[in-house]
User: What shape does this take?
Amino acid sequence: MKKGYVIAIDGPAASGKSTTARMLARKLKYIYIDTGAMYRACALCALQRKIDLEDENSLEKMLQDIKIEIKYAEQGNRIYLNGDDVTARIREADITRLSSRIAVIGIVREKMVELQRKMGAQGGVIMDGRDIGTVVFPDADFKFFMTAGVKVRARRRWEEAVAKGEELNIKDVEKELIWRDQNDTNREHSPLRKADDAMEIDTTSLSVEEQVECLLNQIRERENA
Ligand code: CDP
Assistant: This one.
């Protein structure tokens, strides 16, 4: 496999993007960048500083000196916000919802996209999110758009939560996913959308291994063409 590709993976919440991206990055020895974690870190920063999301001046100040780092670790990347490890905190329900609310704001997106382009500039990178193939890297070497039925996606999220010891109702998880997908799809700036040249992969009845294999096959096929 040639080195240095930019691989974009987009799709709605819990469609299998992150797991697939992480495993593929491991196989290819690529860097994995979870852009959702960056919006989550932004949301946490705004919460810590008690910033009203309507207050663009305060948000702008926050964005001027925000420091978001993704550090590789064997067990999975760690996310640092202004020097603190926030990996677990940003997965909590309040931040999940706030991340989708902050992600509609133009100045927030501009800053995140700027950081993401820097992080991916050298290639050899897999980036997952909502707008990677459409906005961040419209010229990515490979673009995938992952989808799955909402019931399956809700079950995946619910199982993750249960594994962490959280007690959640699967119906509530489903409602939250639907709310977030709608918010992400209907926003003005960089809405969740499949790039015209992205390959759609429906993961509803695929195992994680099958998902990874599916992407790998596409990459190999094109390389051998
Ligand atoms: O992992 P999950 O699919 O639940 O969400 P995530 O990828 O961590 O993203 C959290 C939120 O960040 C999403 O609901 C989007 O609102 C926002 N996001 C975005 O707007 N653009 C991206 N490239 C990545 C995430």
